[in-house]
Structures are given as structure tokens and as C-alpha cells.
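Re: the multi-chain job from yesterday

Posting the exact lines I submitted so nobody has to dig through the queue logs.
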Amino acid sequence: MALMVKMRSPAHSWARRLVAAVRCTEWATGGKVSARRFGSQRQLVMVEPSPTAGVAVLKLKNPPVNSLSLEFLTELNINLEKLENDKTFRGIIITSDCPRIFSAGLDLKELCGKNPAHYTEYYKALQNLWLRLYLSNLVLISAINGSCIAAGCLISLACDYRILADNPKYVIGMNETRLGLVAPFWFKDNLVNTIGHRASERALQLGLLFPPAEALQVGIVDKVVPEDQVQSTALSVMAQWLAVQDHARHLTKNMMRKSTADLLVKQRDADIQNFISFLSRDSIQKSLQMYLAKLTQNKG
Amino acid sequence: MALMVKMRSPAHSWARRLVAAVRCTEWATGGKVSARRFGSQRQLVMVEPSPTAGVAVLKLKNPPVNSLSLEFLTELNINLEKLENDKTFRGIIITSDCPRIFSAGLDLKELCGKNPAHYTEYYKALQNLWLRLYLSNLVLISAINGSCIAAGCLISLACDYRILADNPKYVIGMNETRLGLVAPFWFKDNLVNTIGHRASERALQLGLLFPPAEALQVGIVDKVVPEDQVQSTALSVMAQWLAVQDHARHLTKNMMRKSTADLLVKQRDADIQNFISFLSRDSIQKSLQMYLAKLTQNKG
Amino acid sequence: MALMVKMRSPAHSWARRLVAAVRCTEWATGGKVSARRFGSQRQLVMVEPSPTAGVAVLKLKNPPVNSLSLEFLTELNINLEKLENDKTFRGIIITSDCPRIFSAGLDLKELCGKNPAHYTEYYKALQNLWLRLYLSNLVLISAINGSCIAAGCLISLACDYRILADNPKYVIGMNETRLGLVAPFWFKDNLVNTIGHRASERALQLGLLFPPAEALQVGIVDKVVPEDQVQSTALSVMAQWLAVQDHARHLTKNMMRKSTADLLVKQRDADIQNFISFLSRDSIQKSLQMYLAKLTQNKG
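And the result, C-alpha cells for all chains:
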């Protein structure tokens, strides 16, 4: 859901950059992705220690725009599971290694011209990622150092705290409707739990992308700081969260979030079928194919 | 629920105007209403084209205060159904043709001294109106050019966006408790989805009517503009909503609202019984009859 | 949950005062509490008339910090039940008779080294208190003239309106996680209904205690006034609430709150078992015992 479908002149600079970037770079990796899925030499997720004991920094590194390919989702899930099970870690700061973009969301190439088995695998990986993040026992802080779009925004919303770089070119939100798509209900639930029902209604229907000041006001991020202070702020906020005993904190977190997560857990299969059925519509596939064909043509 | 019961000196100027207006005008139409319900020469709802293609302007025209008589509710439902099914329309701006009042809410004469069959028909029409508005596939924008009370407020809350004229004499809210009445639970649900639980708790119990600045702050309207800019603002906001593809937008709207609407759909009959039972209490009927008798007497 | 466990240097002055106060005073009453439960010569709850007809002032008087002992909870329940059933009363202002503290929350001595039957009795009294307050037909206003912590905060949240004295040393919030404890789900539900999901998530996990300006901003109180105006403001706010007919107001209140209260009512026993099971963990008992031993030693 990262790329523009049917939107002729993208208004946001992130979108222009995104389209340009995709044209220049992303397609070069095209057909090889699935072949080297588990034997990739590229490292899409980098886990590094932080200055704070017990805190890892997880960097999203799928240039140019951290679009969520199946390979990338899989690596994210694997790395998050490892960190969750490693008792030396109490918190993770999630940030981007790509300039100017946190994540552009789903990789549309995964959604186009593939078979239902592929869509199922892909969507399950996305469901898994959200459930893993949303219910994590670790403290998760998003250090959002670039635009944060659609499923990229979901990753942030599933964290415990969101810090956005104060750059007016960066935007955050769920713009699915702008591509003719509909966010899954659990995207909506996570957004409603964050900014409330009314603001979600408007933001989701209009596909709003909020620049920093508006993002702070609507509550889709918790803090806006100068770009060079995003990481240091993340560390100081993390210290505040780690001052609380883990056990009491994650029982409390679970009490706050379990009922929302359960809405997905209890209907995962129906949710998958709904996604595949929507995606398989001629009108949706045609939109995606036209868009991708246009990109390919432009590359030629 | 439009009129004051047991309130000896209405504090708000809208209420004074309303009482005066009712005394002068409304009773003149009294007994004839039901007879010409479907053959009315009065046109209570005016549907006009707007400068924007695909957008209709629906004007409420039941002077003096747009109180929601059965005839008026019926015409509203018919007109809205027609617009919903007419593929040339994508959005409706709902506004008032009566000066200084958007709608004063339910017509108390429909609630007093009638039989249960009448109450049932009336209340069903109200349920239908709300369900139709709340789940409409069209973009609905309220251009609130006057006070907007009780069930009149409900009409606005069921829209996608609310613009209120910046006139300190205009107020918006659900004041049922001020009349000794209780708003139905779906009024409450729609309000909670708009301004949150805590603000609703206070507003509904106290029967608060918010002037423009407070209305904006609590979030019961989305925008306050000078009175002569209400219609033009409605058109420009409409353009923003129409920039989104209809299909994705209304699937998203449905995802946001269906569970709330279903709470009513699943217990429509029980809700009707509850309403009739409340309305049939001696104390409630006595209040209404005393109030109406006083109005008649004053007219004499 | 009133006292600090494992927190070596309490940051808040209320906590330092609290620890000091407990050391000096509270233990003196220790073993005798249960013996004179129903024959107490101390009066822990004072009910006084107010200048407004129909309004009682209920003063919490369990010095030094109004910690909620079983005796105190029982007296509260008895007094509230009496007021609820006395038709001369329409509203209660709840305030503290102890300087600088509204209530420090649960009495940890009730949670430590006792048997399951005692825990059950204690926790049931707490459940009863909340249900009684949250669904009261009376107008309840909290005149919060001191720090208001954990279950003390719950008492305020269950009221209809909260006025906090503007003293930067006073804080309000639910700090259970700071003691290694977890607030019951109905504390959480009441908080979410008051300040929303996102703010509750952060406040509960971090165990935040808000000073007046922050408390007002997050919405955990409705008004902050100079300390010497807390009582007079409570009376004028009460007048506003009493301007509404009782019957319509409490039907509306019930409509807003019943579904939340029912979540507890429907699983009271499971909630009790969950509480006892958590409390009986070695790690929790050890924390409490170490803390209490330390207090006793310091007294020696």
C-alpha cells in the first residue's frame, strides 16, 4: 500500500521521492527476491546494541523506502522473536536506516499478479508482525526519522511510544483509501486505540498523512523533536519506561491490549479470506497492474 | 424533545425564540398534518443542486424550528433514500432553510396523547433516519446555520463532517435531560464516537448545549466559520472528501460505523418497546400535556 | 497499593511524606483494627450537611493518609449505602479530612501475610465500593484537597466530577506498577472511560502521578482551582448537576456506565481469584513483607 495507484500528481514530496526512488532502484531487485528469501546476502534488518544496557536498536534497511516485502516481513518477525526470547533485552528502539523514510508500507509487488497461496503467506506474515509487536513484552519505541505510511505507520502504532522528527517533509498516517484500498480492521482498531474514534474515522476515510505538528496534535505520535535528537530522545524515553518493573508493566500492557489483539486472533482465517477476496477483484488487480506497468515502462 | 418541559424560564435565547415561534405558528398546522401526510402541498425537504457536480444540498424546511414531525421524518427518509440510490450523487450537504435554527429536535406533539401504534410508527421513522444517515455511502456534511438541538444534533452527528456558524446565539447539543427525558442509547453511542466517553457522560447528563467555541473544543463540531461562509466551507470540505474514491471510502466508513449501528439493528424492537414504555409513564405524559396545554392557552 | 515497594528514593514529596507518616503513625493502630471493626470509637468517615439542601459532605478521616483499610472500606460502604437510600440527599461531595492527602489507596497491611479468606473479604469490599460509587444515583463530586493515589484515585474516577486543588505538591494517578503491582481491569476501564485508551495505556504502564496542570490536561480531573476554593467550587458545580431532574439524570448515567460496571459484575468471583492468586505469589508477598519489616524496624 506504499505506492500511489490512480493518483496522477502526488501532492506530497515523500510521494514524489518515493515514485522516483522506486523507478530508479526497487525494480532492479524484482524477480530475485523470492528465490533468495532465506539465503539473502542483503541484511534487511539490522539489530545493534544501544548505549543503554538491555536495549537494542532495530534498523529497517530495505532501501529505498523500506517497503514491506515478504522477505522483509519475514526477517522482521525472526529478529523480533529472537529479541523477545533473549532475556538480556528489555526494550527495542525501532528506526529506519533509509534516509527520509521510516517505511512506505506494504510492497505492492507482493499484491499483484501472484496466486492466493502467495497472498496468504504474505498477509499471514503481516498479521504475525502486528500481533508480535502489539503484544510484545518488551518496551518498543519508534524513532520515526522519516515518512511513515500505511503499514509502516501500523508498525509505529503497535509500539509503546512514538517520536517523530520535526521535518515538515515527513508525514505519518494511513493513506490506504488514496490507493483505492481499505485498511484491515485491526489497523483501524490500533488507530482508534491511539487517536480515538472520531479522529480515526476522518483520518482513515480521507487517507490523511499528518506532518509533524498535526501528527502531535491528533496524537498519532507522542513527541516531535528536532531530527538530530530523535535517537537521544528515544533513549531517554526508554529509560523512563525501563524504570518500571517489567513484570508489572507487561501484565498491565497485556490488560490494555489483549482484547484488541484477540479480535484478530479469533478471526485470522476470515480476515485472510477477506483480504484475498478484495485483492483478487478485477478492479483492484487492474489498478495495481496498470501502475506497475507504468513504472516498468518508465524504467525502460 | 425539542421543546421545554418544566423549564420555567428558558435561559437560552434559542429556547425563548423557539417557544415564541411555536406559539405563533406551529399550532396553526396542528390537526391537519396527519391527513395530508403523503399528499402534502408543503415541501418540508428541499433538494437542490450545488455548484459541485454530484453534490446535492438538502434543506430542512419545517418552519419555524424544523421540529421533527412524523411527516418531516418521512419526507427526510424518502428524499435520502432517493439520493442514496441515484448514482449521479456522491455527497449531500444538509442545512436549514429556517433562520437561526438547524433543527430543534423531535416534535413533542408526536409524543403526547397518541396511541402506542403512533409512537411505534414515529420512533421507527426516527430509527430509520439515523441508520440511513449513519451508514450512508454518500459523503454527508452538516452545514449548521443555526441551533442544533437533541435529535437535530443527532442528524449532524450522523454526518461525516460538521461545520457550525460562528454565532454565539447558536448552540448545539443533546439536552434531553433538561426536559426530563433520556436520549436513546444510539444517540449516546453516536455522541461517544464523536466526542469520547467522558465528555459524553457530562454533556448528556447535564443536557449541555454548546455555543460555537465550546462546541469546537469538545469536538461536537469539526469547524466553526463565520455565518456567511458556512455553505462555501461545506463545499470545499466536500471537495476534500470527494477526492477519495467512493468505494474505498465507504468500505472504510462501514468498517468504522457498522458495529455501532448493529447495536441498534439487533434490538430495534426492544428499543421501541422501551421508548413507548418510558413515554407512556403518567409523569412523562403529564409533563408533556401540561406544557402543550400552556402553549395552547397562550395562543388563545 | 498506597505505599512504595522497592522504590528506594521516592521522587515525589507526597511519597516521602507518606512514608514518614506511616512510620510515625499508622503502625500504632496495627493489630487492633480487625477487633474493633464494627465497634470502632474512631470515626473514619464523617458525613456532614453542606450549605446546599440535599447535599452531604463525606469526609475521609483515616489519618495519616486515608489508606483504605478493611475497616475504612466497610465504613465507606455503610455510609454510602445510607446516603443512597436516604431520599433527602441528592448529591455527595467527597473530600479528605487529612491534610495534603485525599487518599493514598489500598492499605498494604491488608494484603500481606493474611489468609485467602481475609483477602477475599477485603477485595470484595473494594469491588463493592467501586460499584456503589460508579453506579450511584446521587451526584458525586470529588473535592480533591491532596494527593490522590491508586485506589484513592479510583474513588475520584468513580465520581461524576473531579476538582483538584492547585498545589504542585499534590499528584493524582494510578501508580500500581511502581510497586510491582497491577491495577484490576475495572480500575483500567474506569480510567479509559475518563481519559481515553492511549493516555491510559501510558499512565497505567508508567504508573504516572500527575501534578495539577498535567492532570487537567490529560483529563483525569475536570477542574483545577486554588486550594481555598475547592469546597466552594464543589458546591457550585453540584448546583449545576442538581439543576437537572434526578430521574432523567440517573437513567442517563446508568446508560453511560452500566456496561462497564457489568464487566465486573459478571466476573466478580474470577476477579477475586485472580487477585488472590497474584497476591499469593512468593515474589509479591516477599516484596510486601520486606517493605513492612523495614517500616517496623524503623519504628523500633
